[in-house]
Specification:
Layout (H helix, E strand, L loop, with lengths): L1 H18 L22 E6 L8 E5 L8 E9 L7 E8 L5 E9 L7 E12 L16 E8 L5 E3 L6 E3 L13 E6 L13 E14 L6 E9 L4 E15 L1
Antiparallel strand pairs: 1-13, 2-5, 3-4, 4-13, 5-12, 6-11, 6-13, 7-10, 7-12, 8-9
Length: 247
């Protein structure tokens, strides 16, 4: 009899709770779904007169027996009449094909979004046009190159030919690659072949590079020269502009 009484009491309590408004319990408000961010156009302006923090220089396209010499990089004062400061890069091409570059990662894009980018680059040099050079004239056979990549550009030794190359397609001298575009040649018309004077110039290309931002909205920019000139080439990078558009 005690067992029956307990079950009846429990049922009565349940009915009482229902009668007191158990069906009217308020559910917490549901947050509205957050719309994913929309990729927009952006411009990155690089000014090497203010410093080179975050940039790392390197060389590629060579073998162990023709490794480049006289390599160096740093923030330096420019010779007159240009003046100011810039990013100084120097290397001696012993392989008939040398890519001298600097790289840096940038942020602020929508994670995993697809973009295109075009570049213009400003620099100072004493390389003239119409002069003689071993392997090709310095003015006409050193190419200004800009590139973009999702993953960090690294120099990797290739098993196929034992050549040290970057792990992305930056092109080959006068020929643009998928992720690197030729902006023009280095030489400036009007300079003397003796290299006694410097001037600055800007090279640009409307040929867009397609890339995807990584999971954190970051990507890499590469600036440099691709040289067929078999000698020492030095240059002062002054800055660059990357014009980014969503695909």
């Amino acid at each position: 009899m005690q067992k029956t009484w307990t079950s009846s009491l429990a049922a009565a309590v349940l009915l009482a709770l229902t009668a007191c408004g158990g069906d009217n319990l308020q559910q917490p408000p549901q947050a509205a779904p957050v719309a994913p961010p929309v990729p927009t156009a952006a411009t990155i302006t690089i000014d090497f007169s203010k410093g080179i923090d975050g940039w790392t220089a390197g060389v590629a396209d060579y073998k162990d027996d023709n490794e480049p010499t006289e390599t160096g990089a740093g923030w330096s004062k420019l010779p007159p009449p240009v003046g100011g400061t810039g990013y100084y890069l120097i290397s001696h091409n012993n392989s008939d094909d040398l890519f001298t570059f600097t790289k840096r990662q940038f942020s602020g894009l929508v994670p995993n979004a697809k973009y295109t980018v075009t570049f213009e680059m400003t620099y100072a040099t004493n390389a003239a046009t119409g002069c003689f050079g071993v392997g090709g004239a310095r003015g006409e056979n050193v190419y200004m190159v800009a590139g973009a990549a999702t993953d960090e550009p690294k120099v990797v030794k290739q098993s196929s030919d034992n050549r040290y190359r970057l792990n992305f397609d930056h092109g080959d001298q006068a020929v643009s690659g998928k992720q690197g575009k030729v902006l023009g040649t280095q030489g400036i018309e009007g300079l003397d072949c003796g290299g006694t004077e410097f001037a600055k110039a800007t090279r640009k290309s409307e040929e867009a590079i397609a890339f995807t931002a990584d999971k954190d909205g970051k990507f890499w920019i590469v600036l440099g020269t691709d040289s067929a000139f078999e000698g020492t080439n030095d240059i002062y990078l002054l800055g660059a502009v990357a014009s980014i558009k969503p695909q």
